[in-house]
Design a protein that fits this description.
This protein is an alpha/beta fold. The protein is built from 21 helices and 24 strands.
Length: 663
């Protein structure tokens, strides 16, 4: 009876844990978290090309700017637009959409030419500007200039809905007074998606990219390209005209956006492409729709109950096979539903978090009489003498045998431990009496509470498997995934295990080549940005806290993680040399630490010597890349907050530019 009760208790823990993990990865609903965004992005790879006649995009690009002798960064002469519009009118396109703002008066003669060209065409749709009101939540609409508004077939607002990672996934329908540019154009063209006007604001539409970031044919506006198309080339087609920024001046904002394909292709698309895709979606009424929160909650509970209850009953080999099969089946079902009905749900949370979590929990919480568990317990060697007692403290870590201490810091120790089935984990023990008082110790524990639910939401976070505390003795502990060994990687021998960190790499090699620095800094800046999106800061980013797990860098020593705060509102905890001069607590302080880490890895010097360069720059590998990365780290470490990167995402953007130059 006791065995059965224990089994039921393990099963309940597994079910509740899997359901809770799934729900935490989906929230919040209004701002899609990383795994939810991944669910949408990956499905775009499976979407078929558009079946209806696709729009044509004409770029006001660098070539056209040179051919028409326009000044970069300045409004184009509207006589040039009139000339192109007259050429299009000869072919009678279904609609001509200008994704350019004509709200201010220009040269009177050129304005008159463009207004007459619009009247002759009769199917021109213009963009109105929507400008946010400074210091307020509202905005102001600026319609096209009166001569243009009068002669055009209509106008709409030219704005896009950008997520926190600057990727456009959702369609912006406009407001209750003025529709978006894409909706207005589709209405004039008789689009299926605009047949019921009330759907414009009542439905949450997600863009269907048709399997590509730029699914439509494009041409330069140059007189040697678009204007020379054969007669009838544009007949009956929707034509979109807009800018395509190439080279930007410092501080200039580009009308370019990320797409679901940007993460692995690194390319951005102009706003006119987004407008054309939204128009095509409305014409065919094939936008995507996310399942409602009740449906998603039902799926998460169903998977949690099913996996949490069934997995612990399976043998180890059978368990792994079933888990892999369920994950693959979930991905296939998600793709099938999206392709058939245009509906998607956060399937990566199910396949990438819930099912693997159920797998791990099932390996940990197994029926006590299970043969494999008994065998593993018999195979476990006795603890070291220190494993049971250290400095008078009795360490009790549930279901884990502490083998030996592998690291010690100001606030605690790190042990290598073996669980009941023989898997090795790292156990961080944080002692209350090593803090200046009770409140800093409690603050450290609250940081772990906030970090654990997201610890497996990103590849750059060290996974926390369990957290517990012993109030009578005065410590809390975290059971975490174990990092690579310095020599053998994940082939762990506890008796000689030494964790591989960036600090250990630098001790062995002195410095790292610029290309290697660029690789791990791209990963670290993405990880820190994701941490900041969760409204948390690390406060102690340094080489010793960058752990390699299966060769991938991860942020470790997370017991100092806390809420983002303003300067001066957080305890001055961290490591001198890597701590920002204004102190920890704000996101920019973590960016400062990232810059110091890059400096140490790139030069081999101590962090306090930044920005001093090595004496012989010419002898370093890739001197050009070295100097470009030095500029990035100098900006990240700038003592003046107004000149420092305001976010890790912007630092990563400059690193990506350096990366693309190498391709």
């Amino acid at each position: 009876m006791g065995t059965r009760n224990a089994y039921l208790r393990y099963e309940t823990i597994a079910v509740l844990s899997v359901v809770a993990l799934g729900c935490l990865c989906v929230l919040p609903l209004h701002t899609p978290p990383f795994l939810v965004r991944c669910s949408y992005d990956l499905l775009q790879l499976a979407m078929p090309a558009q079946k209806a006649p696709p729009p044509i995009v004409i770029y006001m690009d660098e070539q056209a700017t040179q051919d028409y002798q326009q000044k970069p960064g300045q409004p184009w002469s509207r006589a040039v637009h009139a000339r192109l519009l007259d050429r299009l009118t000869l072919d009678k396109p279904s609609v001509v959409v200008f994704d350019a703002i004509f709200s201010e008066a220009g040269d009177p003669q050129s304005d008159a030419l463009l207004a007459r060209a619009m009247r002759r065409n009769g199917r021109v749709v213009l963009a109105g500007d929507r400008v946010s009101t400074a210091g307020q939540n509202g905005y102001t609409l600026f319609p096209p200039l009166d001569p243009f508004e009068t002669n055009a077939a209509g106008w709409g607002t030219a704005k896009v809905y950008v997520d926190s990672d600057r990727v456009v996934r959702r369609y912006d329908p406009g407001d209750d007074q003025h529709p978006s540019l894409a909706w207005k154009a589709a209405t004039i063209s008789g689009g299926k998606g605009t047949a019921l006007p009330h759907r414009r604001l009542s439905e949450d539409r997600w863009l269907n990219y048709y399997g590509s970031a730029s699914p439509f044919a494009s041409h330069s506006m140059s007189y040697s390209n678009a204007e020379t198309r054969a007669p009838g080339f544009f007949a009956g087609k929707a034509v979109f005209i807009g800018g395509k920024p190439q080279t930007l001046l410092r501080g200039e904002v580009a009308d370019v956006f990320g797409t679901p394909f940007t993460l692995w292709k690194g390319s951005f698309v102009p706003g006119v492409d987004i407008t054309a895709i939204a128009y095509a979606n409305l014409m065919a009424d094939d936008s995507l729709h996310r399942t409602g929160w009740l449906s998603e909650l039902g799926v998460l509970i169903l998977v949690g109950v099913g996996a949490g209850a069934v997995f612990p009953r399976l043998g180890r080999t059978q368990l792994v096979c079933v888990a892999i099969g369920c994950g693959a089946l979930g991905a296939v079902i998600a793709a099938g539903i999206c392709l058939s009905w245009g509906v998607w749900f956060p399937w990566v949370v199910v396949c990438g978090i819930q099912i693997p979590s159920a797998l791990v929990l099932s390996l940990v919480f197994r029926w006590p009489s299970h043969n494999s568990t008994a065998a593993a317990l018999k195979a476990s060697p006795p603890l070291d003498a220190e494993a049971s007692h250290t400095s008078g403290r009795v360490l009790e870590i549930p279901d884990h045998a502490l083998i030996r201490c592998i690291g010690e810091g100001a606030y605690g120790q790190v042990w290598i431990a073996r669980n009941a089935i023989g898997l090795h984990h790292a156990v961080k023990v944080v002692y209350q009496n090593r803090f200046g008082g009770v409140e800093p110790y409690q603050r450290a524990f609250r940081g772990i509470q906030k970090f654990m639910p997201i610890s497996r939401s990103h590849k750059g976070f060290v996974n926390i498997l369990h957290v517990g505390r012993n109030e009578s003795v005065g410590y809390f502990f975290c059971i975490m995934e174990l990092g690579d060994d310095q020599k053998t990687g994940q082939d762990i021998d506890p008796s000689c295990y030494l964790p591989r960190t960036l600090s250990s790499d630098l001790r062995q090699r002195g410095t790292l080549p610029p290309r290697e620095c660029l690789g791990f800094m791209l990963a670290l800046t993405e990880t820190v940005h994701e941490l900041h999106l969760q409204r948390l800061v690390h406060r102690d980013i340094k080489p010793a806290n960058i752990l390699f797990v299966r060769g991938n860098p991860k942020l470790a020593d997370i017991d100092l993680v806390t809420d983002i705060s303003r300067m001066g509102e957080t305890s001055r905890i961290g490591t001198e040399g890597y701590m920002a001069p204004e102190g920890p607590g704000a996101a920019q302080a973590d960016v400062y630490s990232l810059g110091r880490v890059l400096y140490v890895a790139l030069t081999g010097k101590s962090p306090d010597q930044c920005p001093e360069l090595p004496t012989q720059i010419g002898s370093v590998e890739d001197p050009g890349l070295f100097m470009e990365m030095n500029q990035i780290l100098c900006k990240a470490c700038d003592a003046n907050l107004t000149r420092r990167y305001p976010s890790a995402a912007l630092m990563r953007a400059d690193l990506l530019k350096a990366f693309h130059k190498l391709q």
